[in-house]
């Protein structure tokens, strides 16, 4: 599902954009905002943001372009695709400065909207598919995407997780339980302290798992039956 935000101080424009989105026959969730303050205070993550430019918020006085700059300056795990919707051509170069995907002029042409929306949706879906093959972590104040096939296993150490890879180890603050849920299918929690990449298993018995890099990890006797099922299912 694509999460879409529409931020415009004109209700009729918000309603019209929502109707155009629904005509595209793509599963989505639409949230409308009447001001930049309303959008920023909500703190929801969105995949796609339709944003008016000349729109003053009552409280902050922030227009759409200023909000876009603030979004880009914020360290977010997920940055939305921004499509500006405005009645003025003069902001087109400013739009490129904040990495806008496209610039739609009012009155909005329905065919043009459909073309732009389709390209944006394709990019979002493609990135989501790629995301499934990577683990995105916050490391050294940046977002780092780690290909899953580079990871042998993840180890819980106090309040941190250590990622064991083929060439390095990374340590960051996380909960192994959250990662277990996120990575289910390719990874299995063989022990309270280990989440193992099933693709990296060389051999196993009832007490330990041997990985292709030679590391041997203890396997909980309570986890063993479910581990065998998960491993055989993954290898099919």
Automatic annotation (TrEMBL):
Q: Enumerate the spans annotated as Response regulatory domain.
A: 3-121
Q: Does the keyword Phosphoprotein apply?
A: yes
**According to the lineage, what is the superkingdom?**
Bacteria
Matching InterPro entries: CheY-like_superfamily, LytR-like, LytTR_DNA-bd_dom, Sig_transdc_resp-reg_receiver
GO terms of molecular function: DNA binding; phosphorelay response regulator activity
Q: Which residues form the HTH LytTR-type domain?
A: 135-233
4-aspartylphosphate modified-residue sites: 52
What function is annotated for this protein?
May play the central regulatory role in sporulation. It may be an element of the effector pathway responsible for the activation of sporulation genes in response to nutritional stress. Spo0A may act in concert with spo0H (a sigma factor) to control the expression of some genes that are critical to the sporulation process.
Stated name of the protein? Stage 0 sporulation protein A homolog
